[in-house]
Design goal:
Layout lengths: L1 H27 L6 H17 L5 H22 L9 H23 L15 E4 L2 E4 H23 L1 H11 L1 H6 L4 H22 L1 H4 L5 H4 L1 H11 L4 H21 L6 H13 L12
Antiparallel strand pairs: 1-2
Helix pairs in contact: 1-5, 1-8, 1-11, 1-12, 2-3, 2-8, 3-8, 5-6, 6-8, 11-12
């Protein structure tokens, strides 16, 4: 039971950080490998607000998400939108370059050391249940992740904005002819993806740590979640994250010498069986 609970918590944290990439890659068809840089930005903003400004944790986290969203809007309007029609290779090279710039900036301003971080008192400790000690912070992550998953699924599938976004991606010319502001839809979507990255980065400091290497250290995990879950599918990203979290924690308990190898095994098997991901759309024959 402890392994299952810790695995669910780790998977939910992975979902919180990676779902923003699922939004930009799957819904906008833009390969934004700088997603980890936005997560790192949210982490640094949260850590600075807590340690230097004395801002309460529950206020620092949404502020971190808002700052990441604002930076995402600026970059989308000035840089990203110039590459919407470019090849995926151009998008990869551009966003990888942004990663290295973000890493250098973090080194310059904050140094190479891990950022100090302390949870508020109400999120520390454990709840003792029969046969299981439940970490309060891990339970908090699971609750936040579930709320976010339901909210995002509703936004994408059942709202006017979600319909406009899907139309803008599938056929921008026809969408403009119907009166949809395609540029605004893309800006808002990119802001959402950046905010989700910042939120995940702020919530993940306690478990993942925070240093300038963050964007490259975890980008492979983000891509695995999107690949296994299916690009642009919120439910698929959630299930893939939980599955990978359980495999990772179980592997560390029972096969510590294997390290992260088991996650890659799961990814390879899943992509052989379901090349489009768990809930990805099958290509028409």
């Amino acid at each position: 039971m402890t392994i299952i609970f810790d695995g669910l918590a780790a998977g939910m944290l992975l979902f919180l950080i990676s779902v923003g990439l699922s939004v930009t890659l799957g819904l906008m068809n833009f390969v934004n490998l700088a997603h980890g840089a936005f997560a790192m930005l949210g982490g640094y903003v949260c850590a600075l607000l807590l340690s230097r400004a004395g801002v309460p944790f529950l206020l620092a986290v949404p502020i971190a998400a808002a700052v990441s969203a604002a930076v995402g809007v600026v970059l989308e309007r000035t840089l990203y939108r110039r590459l919407y029609g470019a090849s995926h290779l151009d998008q990869v090279l551009f966003s990888i370059g942004l990663n290295f710039m973000a890493i250098s900036a973090a080194h310059y301003f904050f140094g190479a050391q891990q950022q100090p971080f302390a949870l508020p008192d109400f999120l520390r400790g454990q709840i003792n249940l029969p046969g299981l000690d439940v970490g309060i912070y891990r339970l908090f992550l699971i609750g936040i992740g579930l709320i976010l998953a339901v909210g995002l699924q509703w936004l994408v599938s059942y709202t006017k904005f979600g319909a406009q976004l899907r139309a803008s991606v599938d056929n921008p010319r026809a969408a403009r002819g119907l009166g949809i502001n395609v540029g605004r839809a893309f800006t808002l979507t990119f802001a959402l993806g950046s905010a989700l990255a910042g939120l995940g980065g702020a919530l993940g400091i306690e478990m993942l740590g925070l240093d300038p290497s963050f964007p490259l250290k975890y980008i492979v995990y983000f891509l695995i979640v999107v690949a296994v879950g299916g690009s642009g599918n919120i439910k698929g990203s959630l299930i893939a994250s939980l599955m990978l979290g359980l495999v990772d924690i179980a592997g560390k308990y029972y096969l510590p010498q294997a390290g992260a190898f088991l996650i890659y095994v799961v990814m390879v098997i899943m992509l052989i069986v379901r090349p489009q991901g768990l809930f990805g759309r099958t290509a028409a024959k």
